Every structure is written in structure tokens, then in C-alpha cells.
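User: Reviewer 2 asked us to show a designed sequence for the structure in our supplementary figure. I'm pasting the C-alpha cells here. Could you produce the per-position amino acids so we can include them in the response letter?
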């Protein structure tokens, strides 16, 4: 399990022969604060170490986003997203147009595919 942490606020030390010992209480509080500060510092170092390991495994990263012509990284991302959306809309419209052309072509075909060349005049009438 590990060793049990003994609290600096050990109440056995707080009561002297004359009752409540204020100096012992102040010492205990100072000791507890120092221990807490030390634990916090160790925790920060541990987190920093974990963070650095994660960054190193991901490879080198720039400190700030690439900025061209004085634009911020956020505006670049927004512009890229806008261009991507425009491209998607254009592709969708192109597909829709092709589908409509295909439907028009199928509508133009004669109903009776078996029609011979002598019935060509009827096909011309349909057009």
C-alpha cells in the first residue's frame, strides 16, 4: 500500500502541561504548508515531464501557427474551411447537373429499342 502519511497537525503535540500550545500549532501549520507546497511542486514536475514526453512522441511542433500577410492562424483556418465548403458545393452541383443530363438522355431514348431503321421517321417525330 505504501507508507501512511503522518499529518503535521498531530494533535498530541498541541496540548502541553498548561493546556493548548499555540506555538506548537503554528509550527504544525507551517510544517503542513511546507509539505503541501512540496507535494504541489512534485506534482507540477510530474505533469510537466508527462507533457514533454507526449510532445516529443508527437514530433517537433512550431511555437505559433504559420502567419502569412499578417493574418492570424484562426483566420487561415476559417478561410480554409470556407474554401473546402465551396469545393464541396461545386462538386455537389456538378453531380446534380450530370444526373439531370443523364435523366434527359434516358427520356430522349425511344420507348421501343427494337425499332428498326424503317421506323426512324417516328423517332425523329418524337424529338
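Assistant: Here is a per-position design you can include in the supplement:
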Amino acid at each position: 500500500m505504501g507508507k501512511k502519511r503522518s499529518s503535521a497537525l498531530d494533535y498530541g503535540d498541541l496540548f502541553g502541561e498548561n493546556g493548548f500550545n499555540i506555538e506548537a500549532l503554528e509550527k504544525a501549520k507551517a510544517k503542513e504548508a511546507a509539505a503541501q507546497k512540496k507535494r504541489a511542486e512534485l506534482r507540477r514536475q510530474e505533469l510537466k515531464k508527462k507533457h514533454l514526453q507526449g510532445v516529443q512522441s508527437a514530433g517537433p511542433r512550431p511555437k505559433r501557427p504559420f502567419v502569412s500577410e499578417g493574418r492570424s492562424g484562426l483566420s487561415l483556418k476559417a478561410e480554409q474551411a470556407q474554401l473546402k465548403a465551396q469545393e464541396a458545393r461545386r462538386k455537389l452541383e456538378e453531380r446534380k447537373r450530370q444526373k439531370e443530363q443523364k435523366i434527359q438522355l434516358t427520356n430522349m431514348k425511344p420507348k421501343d429499342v427494337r425499332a428498326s431503321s424503317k421506323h426512324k421517321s417516328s423517332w425523329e417525330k418524337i424529338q
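For the response letter, you might also mention the following. Residues 9-61 form one domain. The two ends are 90 Å apart (CA to CA).
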